[in-house]
Design a protein that fits this description.
The complex is a heterodimer. By secondary structure, chain A is of the alpha+beta class. Helix content of chain A is 52%, strand content 15%. Chain A has three domains: 116 residues, Acyl-CoA dehydrogenase/oxidase, N-terminal domain (Butyryl-Coa Dehydrogenase, subunit A, domain 1, Orthogonal Bundle); 108 residues, Beta Barrel (Butyryl-CoA Dehydrogenase, subunit A, domain 2); 145 residues, Butyryl-CoA Dehydrogenase, subunit A, domain 3. Chain A contains eleven helices and ten strands. In chain A, helix 7 runs parallel beside helix 9 and helix 9 runs antiparallel to helix 10. By secondary structure, chain B is mainly α. The chains are: A alpha+beta, B mainly alpha.
């Protein structure tokens, strides 16, 4: 394995760090308090070619390799303090752009990808339902083919970007007898008759990232909006999860790195009992633990990137990365608060928000427990 | 062993809990719930290693994984 990074990759990461620090962090506390999506930030990042990183130039993308993409997302997480915006960006990229890039027809790619890459269209996907979460393929939303259309009926919940999305990849059952193999994916545009989208749902963290509920009531989706073949839903979902579990979680590694640097700075300057608190092992060991988590997170993410670049699968590595990075993210945020003491607990500082934002990472994209199930299953258990 | 036999042996060993269960080349592995969403990933990993083929995400659709016949046909098309 060769994880050596070239100058172009490092330059891309540094560019996004500088951009994010300068353009994406204004009024962060206020936006978090009001649970406001950063539309201005979205417009600015749309001009940075980030959304189209993995997409070929033919469809308006950059055509970057996955290691460059992972590094860039790491830089975004390091520079951008708005985890809700980061979450929206990642949902747009991995759960909408990627499935269209990998499974769509030529016509669908030409119709949607250029605008998605420019951020002129906002995307997401709709899998989770009131009665299906970890058991993702037990969905009940149906799609029945009739007169050149698919008629969708059902409900979806906890849908990232739903209140702001222009199109969603919606998963529905087309063959109720075939289990996971009877699920298909559809490109559903906002405004499709029979589709109702809720307002933003209130949540503990990631407050600036819109989340909503969908109702499909005889929603008529044109036949040509089927994504891939009938029955390809599970393949589409698994494919996008592999991207999300590596690239979204690269953003979290960037956040962890920033939290560690802030903790080091504070520990060196905050004096108690006549010396900097960094000189107490109870503090310095927490920071050492942060460094260990960051380095191991990077290694597993870069390994996934390397595997994908070799054309190999990384099923178990992706589950390990998702599990490890999300748990490390929560612990790092907790430790950052502890090191900053009462200041860390105050909303004036970013640490309590980082903790609130981090917790969902152990739940979305498959909970920690589901990742352990995947790892165990792939070990033949 | 030919491709059919290799696949049958793997499927019986990995996915069939009941030792009395028999599968044929036409047994619907998906509708009968023999292969679930996790099972297909294990099966793909096995196929790539055993037969030296590449299985893309786009290939993981029911018509390629319905039964041992369709699996063998798919493997043949990739060798």
């Amino acid at each position: 394995m060769d994880f050596a990074l070239d100058q172009t990759q490092i330059a891309f990461k540094n560019m996004i760090i500088k951009f994010a620090q300068k353009e994406l962090n204004a009024n962060m506390q206020e936006r978090d308090r009001k649970a406001e999506f950063n539309w201005n930030g979205w417009k600015k990042i749309s001009q940075q070619s980030i959304f189209g990183l993995p997409v070929s130039e033919e469809y308006g993308g950059v055509g970057a390799d996955i290691i460059t993409t992972i590094l860039t997302m790491e830089g975004l997480g390091y520079g951008c303090e708005d985890n809700g915006l980061i979450f929206a960006i990642n949902s747009h990229m991995w759960s909408c752009i990627i499935p269209i890039m990998e499974f769509a027809s030529e016509e669908q790619k030409k119709k949607y990808l250029p605008k998605l890459c420019k951020g002129e269209l906002i995307g997401g996907h709709a899998m989770t339902e009131p009665d299906s979460g970890s058991d993702a393929f037990s969905i009940r939303t149906t799609a029945v083919k009739k007169d050149g259309k698919y008629i969708l009926n059902g409900e979806k919940t906890f849908i990232t970007n739903a209140p702001i999305a222009d199109l969603l990849i919606v998963f529905a059952v087309t063959d109720k007898n075939s289990g996971f193999a009877g699920i298909s994916g559809f490109i559903v545009e906002k405004g499709t008759p029979g589709l109702t989208i809720s307002k933003d749902m209130e949540k503990m963290g990631l407050k600036t990232g819109p989340l909503g509920y969908l109702v499909f009531d005889n929603c008529e989706v044109p036949e040509e909006n089927l994504l891939g073949r009938e029955g390809a839903g599970a393949a589409i979902f698994n494919s996008e999860m592999e991207w999300e579990r590596s690239c979204l979680f690269a953003c979290h590694v960037g956040v962890m790195e920033r939290l560690m640097e802030q903790s080091i700075h504070y520990a060196k300057h905050r004096e108690q009992f006549g010396k900097p608190i960094a000189k107490y092992q109870s503090v310095s060991h927490k920071i050492a633990d942060m460094k260990v988590k960051i380095e191991l997170s990077k290694l597993i993410l870069y390994k996934i990137g390397w595997l994908k670049m070799q054309g190999k699968k990384g099923n178990i590595e992706t589950a390990i990365a998702k599990l490890f990075v999300s748990e490390a993210f929560v612990q790092t945020a907790m430790d950052a608060i502890q090191i900053h003491g009462a200041n860390g607990y105050m909303a004036e500082y970013p640490f309590e928000r980082m903790l609130r934002d981090s917790i969902a990472s152990t739940i979305y994209s498959g909970s920690s427990q589901i990742q352990k199930n995947i790892i165990a299953s792939l070990l033949g258990l | 062993m030919n491709v059919h036999e290799v696949l049958e042996k793997f499927i019986l060993k990995e996915f069939v809990v009941d030792s009395d269960t028999n599968i044929t080349a036409d047994t619907d592995l998906l509708m009968q719930g023999i292969i679930d969403s996790m099972g297909i990933i294990k099966l793909v990993n096995f196929m790539e290693e055993e037969f030296g083929i590449k299985v893309g995400d786009i290939d993981m659709v029911p018509e390629n994984f319905q039964n041992i016949n369709s699996l063998a046909e798919f493997i043949k098309s990739r060798q």
